[in-house]
Amino acid sequence: MKKLIVILFVVFTFSCNETKKETTTNEVHIEKPEVAANYKSIVVDIEGMTCEIGCAKTIESKLSKFEGVTYSKVNFETKKGQFTFDANKTDKEAIVAKITGIAGGDLYSVTKTQELNEVLKNTK
Fold this sequence. Notes:
This protein is 37% helix and 24% strand. The chain is an alpha+beta fold. A hairpin with a 4-residue loop joins strand 2 and strand 3 (80-86). The chain is elongated, with a radius of gyration of 32 Å.
């Protein structure tokens, strides 16, 4: 009987003391540094718009959803669009390409692009 108790004690002792081996991994977590936004605004002349709701609002809506664009306003009367964007995420060439690519690229064309600072200087 004593042998049985000793054997059970030894079995329970070793089986209960069995600890999980911790797995160590050499993972390195690199956080991407936050880059400050670099906002720029442009004014573009848009040809090919035939109506306010179907054309101007469509361009405005599509550009407001475009990656990096933070402000989008298209004026049908003046045939101009004003767009503010983060230059770290997109550029004016991509915005022009997006406008001219709407509706398969057959309707709209950008005839002139200016940075807003240039436009403001010319109006003074």
